[in-house]
Design goal:
The complex is a heterodimer. Chain A is 28% helix and 19% strand. Chain A has seven helices and seven strands; from the N terminus they run βαααβαβαββββαα. Chain A has helices at 21-24, 35-40, 50-53, 74-82, 94-102, 146-153, 157-164, and strands at 7-14, 59-62, 86-89, 107-109, 120-124, 129-132, 137-140. Chain A has a seven-stranded mixed β-sheet. The radius of gyration of chain A is 15 Å and the shape is globular. Chain B is α/β, with parallel strands linked by helices. Chain B has a five-stranded parallel β-sheet with strand order 4-3-2-5-6, sandwiched between helices. In chain B, strands 16-15-14-17-18 form a five-stranded parallel β-sheet, covered by helices on one side. In chain B, strands 10-9-8-11 form a four-stranded parallel β-sheet. In chain B, helix 2 (38-47) packs across helix 5 (138-147) and helix 6 runs parallel beside helix 8. Classes of the chains: A alpha/beta, B alpha/beta. Chains A and B meet through helix 5 and helix 7 of A and strand 1, helix 2, helix 3, helix 5 and strand 7 of B.
């Protein structure tokens, strides 16, 4: 594990179903390479308070189809830059899912979670076990395909390809 | 064992028979990025040690999302794209040449049976051409441009079979809105869609592009229209599914009685018969985008607007899908008709649909749009509301000042 921490204990910011990429980062702010601009506008049309309260290492939790809509990699980048260390959802839109892993932000699919606002979570990325310390409930995330685990273990696709030069299954 | 269209195309690219669920590293025929995704692609390409793109004739950049540049920050990102394209010897489609998906099809970067990877979520549009086309983000695209490959899980396929012919005054956009409403925005996540049946067989390439385009609005990895009835101006080998191909789900609809459809705020699957929203006052009408900015879309709007003026309380914006579409619409008189009716023509590109510039709605305003997304804030203002409909519905509504069933002007 070069780029990713395996154990994360942090506060959860919980949102609902179908959070689209326009709500994660509006299109008008995406045309930039300045990551702090992205973080300054992250989730602003969904929860203007989020960027004021988010702390480095916090966890984002959502319902189904998180990250639907555009292919903008700026969406997971904005969340990462704002301090989010891992994203948990009942399921993810496919491009967002790949993008998050490619930039080295772990995404865990837990189809039956019932994590509530303000919960304190203990996440083990190696086992995919998530403990909700507020309720005592333990969840297990769906296993990622091996290639995604390899990419994540390198801290993202840039590091993976720098090391391997090509894909290997 | 029988194969779906996606399984056949991927098998042809990996040199062995593969089926849903298998992980593969596949070669890619062509790749592109727009000005929303290319700058991060270039950054990642350099960071991962990229020197040369895998084939400069098969990689393209398109400046369409903020074209022409609205400010110096974006102007500098466009310059970064031009510099990279020149250095690599690959083509950059300049401002006004058109929307990425339209110019990729017009310039034959993608053909039937291809695997195409695009850094834009509406890349499945090329499913109209019987190709396997996936949207990805910038870093994935950088990796494809460097290696000529992508890793994929061969998707399961949902079959959508539509029997019956669409009534006069009902278009491919109404059909795909209806299907998005039924399948829902997450109903095809991680999966491929195959569109088949009589309702698709008579459709033009442009209409097939409208259909495949909105596969993204069901979460699909790709959406491929059955090649039966597909007509192109070059020879090709159609790829049809085997009769015993395995589908994860099959939908059957008789669409012969379908009415014009409207998607209400603020999700593309919030779809209803137009009668539910007729009379809703509108401020702004928009025809364009990768979904509905082609010649047949402008033609049907012109048919409705010919010799008339749009409602005084409505402004109307037209963004042709490409320069070629614009020239054809000028040559046929369609563009004159639209402008004489009061429409405003803007540069070919994504413009208003992505909320960067060229027509952001005001607080409390209502938009009727021929685009494919109506998420809150999509057009640049979270305090506006966007209804999606066919170009015919947009034109009829622009005339009346409120959402109107276009059939009264067409039938």
């Amino acid at each position: 594990m070069s780029g990713v921490q395996t154990n994360i204990k942090a506060k959860a910011h919980v949102y609902g179903d179908h959070i689209d990429t326009d709500r994660i980062i509006p299109g008008k702010y995406t045309k930039t390479l300045d990551l702090s601009t992205l973080a300054n506008h992250v989730l602003e049309d969904l929860d203007p308070n989020f960027k004021k309260i988010v702390q480095q290492g916090d966890i984002l939790v959502a319902g189904i189809n998180f990250g639907c809509g555009s292919s903008r990699e700026q969406a997971p980048l904005a969340l990462k830059q704002a301090g989010i260390s891992v994203i948990i959802a009942r399921d993810f839109a496919r491009i967002f899912f790949r993008n998050a892993i490619n930039i080295g932000i772990p995404v865990l699919e837990i189809t039956d979670h019932n994590i509530q606002k303000g919960a304190e979570l203990d996440v083990n990325l190696k086992t995919g076990i998530v403990k909700d310390l507020s309720t005592g409930i333990t969840y297990k995330a769906t296993k990622l395909p091996d290639i995604m685990i390899d990419i994540l273990n390198e801290g993202g696709l840039v590091n993976y390809l720098t090391k391997h030069g090509n894909y290997s299954l | 064992m029988g194969q779906t269209i996606s399984e056949k195309i991927i098998s042809n690219h990996v040199g062995k028979k593969v089926y849903a669920g298998e992980l593969v590293v596949s070669k890619v025929d062509a790749a592109m990025a727009s000005d929303t995704t290319a700058p991060l692609t270039i950054k990642a390409f350099h960071e991962m040690g990229g020197k040369k793109v895998f084939n400069p004739n098969k990689c393209a950049f398109i400046i369409d999302h903020a074209a022409p540049s609205p400010n110096e920050r974006i102007a500098n990102l466009h310059k970064m794209m031009r510099d990279f394209a020149k250095e690599q010897g690959m083509r950059l489609f300049e401002i006004g040449e058109g929307i990425c998906h339209q110019v990729m099809v017009e310039n034959q970067y993608v053909k039937p049976g291809d695997i195409f990877i695009g850094a834009d979520s509406h890349t499945p549009t090329y499913g109209a051409l019987n190709a396997f086309a996936c949207g990805v983000g910038s870093t994935d695209l950088a990796a494809t441009m460097m290696t000529g490959k992508i890793w994929l899980k061969v998707p399961q396929t949902i079959k959508i079979n539509c029997t019956g012919k669409l009534q006069a005054g009902v278009t491919a956009k109404d059909l795909i809105l209806f299907l998005v409403g039924k399948v829902t925005v997450s109903g095809a996540t991680y999966q491929a869609i195959e569109f088949c049946g009589e309702a698709f067989e008579g459709l033009s390439l442009a209409s097939r592009m409208t259909i495949a385009n909105m596969s993204s609005e069901m979460g699909a990895k790709t959406g491929i229209v059955h090649p039966k009835g597909l007509q192109l101006d070059y020879d090709f080998n159609p790829i049809a599914p085997d009769e015993d191909a395995k589908y994860v789900k099959t939908f059957n609809f008789d669409v012969s009685g379908l009415e014009p459809q409207v998607s209400a705020p603020e999700s593309p699957d919030n779809v209803h018969n137009i009668s539910n929203y007729e009379g809703t006052k509108i401020n702004y009408a928009f025809i364009g985008t990768c979904c509905n900015g082609r010649l047949e879309d402008l033609d049907i709007a012109a048919k409705i607007l010919k010799g008339k003026k749009i409602h005084p309380d409505v402004r109307m914006i037209i963004a042709p899908a490409s320069q070629r579409v614009l020239l054809d619409a000028m040559n046929s008189g369609t563009m004159n008709t639209l402008i004489e009716a009061g429409a405003s023509l803007i540069t070919s590109g994504c413009g208003p649909c992505v909320g960067t510039h060229q027509g952001v709605p005001a607080d409390g305003e209502v938009v009727i749009s021929a685009a494919n997304r109506n998420f809150r804030g999509r057009m640049g203002n979270p305090n506006s509301n966007i209804y999606l409909g066919a170009p015919s519905t947009v034109a009829a509504s622009a005339l009346d000042g409120h959402i109107t069933n276009p059939k009264k002007y067409l039938v």
